[in-house]
Design a protein that fits this description.
Homodimer. Pfam families: QueC (PF06508). This is 7-cyano-7-deazaguanine synthase. Keywords: ATP-binding, Ligase, Metal-binding, Nucleotide-binding, Queuosine biosynthesis, Zinc. By secondary structure, the chain is an alpha/beta fold. The protein contains 8 helices and 5 strands; from the N terminus they run E-H-E-H-E-H-H-E-H-E-H-H-H. A 5-stranded parallel β-sheet has the order 3-2-1-4-5, sandwiched between helices. Helix 2 links the parallel strand 2 and strand 3. The protein is globular.
């Protein structure tokens, strides 16, 4: 892989930015693909642009606004409240077909630029139950892409079996924990870095960070304590 080229599906969030750093360590050349699908916050795209520019990564922004027209959700319609799924149901942030289209278009882009590898930050460990984040889906689509374009693409999912604390651990092992914490945007309310602290994405991110920092420092946070009480490296 060290001599080959990869496309990273890149949102500017914690997971995809960690994957971008992972790809930069593992491939000779890396380009990033961000999808403009009418997401709640344009800042997400600006954040992705800024990170790609700062890291010197060629960045493609692809228009996927049709998704919002076909499958409105809390991620594409500010009139829909962000709520967790109930009784095994999907949360309001699920966008049907999003990863199916994203990975397919990433494959088309990869073919055009001579890349054989596609990297994405989906995970089946700490996720919201999205069916298009599952390992079985990714493997199935990998086969489909190769059949559709007579190619030999490999979709890499370095976070597939990691929980959020382990994702923080990976970014730390790459020497990028502080960068990922301060530069990325995961928050559903469009607040960079540590976010609003209240939405489901922020709660998951914060819990993972606190768990990792406790493990790394050997310090148990007091009840009601926060990651701020443990110094970042």
């Amino acid at each position: 892989m060290k001599q080959e080229k990869a496309v990273v599906v890149f949102s500017g969030g914690q997971d995809s930015t960690t994957c971008l750093f992972w790809a930069l360590e593992n491939f000779a050349e890396v380009e990033a693909a961000t999808f403009d699908y009418g997401q709640r916050h344009a800042l997400e795209i600006e954040c992705a642009k800024d990170i790609a520019e700062e890291l010197g990564v060629k960045h493609h922004i692809l228009d996927m606004s049709l998704i919002g027209q076909l499958a409105p959700s809390a991620l594409t319609d500010t009139g829909i409240e962000v709520v967790d799924g109930e009784d095994g149901g999907l949360p309001s942030t699920f966008v049907p077909g999003r990863n199916l289209l994203f990975f397919s278009f990433a494959g088309i882009l990869a073919r055009q630029i001579g890349a054989k590898h596609i990297v994405t930050g989906v995970s089946e460990t700490d996720f919201s139950g999205y069916p298009d984040c599952r390992d079985a889906f990714v493997k199935s689509l990998n086969v489909t892409l190769n059949l559709a374009m007579d190619g030999q693409f490999v979709i890499h999912t370095p976070l597939m079996w990691l929980d959020k604390s382990q994702v923080w651990e990976l970014s730390d092992s790459l020497g990028k924990l502080d960068y990922v914490r301060t530069k990325t945007l995961t928050c559903y309310n469009g607040i960079q870095a540590d976010g609003c602290g209240e939405c489901p994405a922020c709660r998951l991110r914060r819990k993972g960070l606190e768990t990792f920092l406790e493990k790394k420092s050997g310090t148990v946070l007091p009840a009601g304590g926060s990651a701020e009480e443990v110094l970042l490296p």
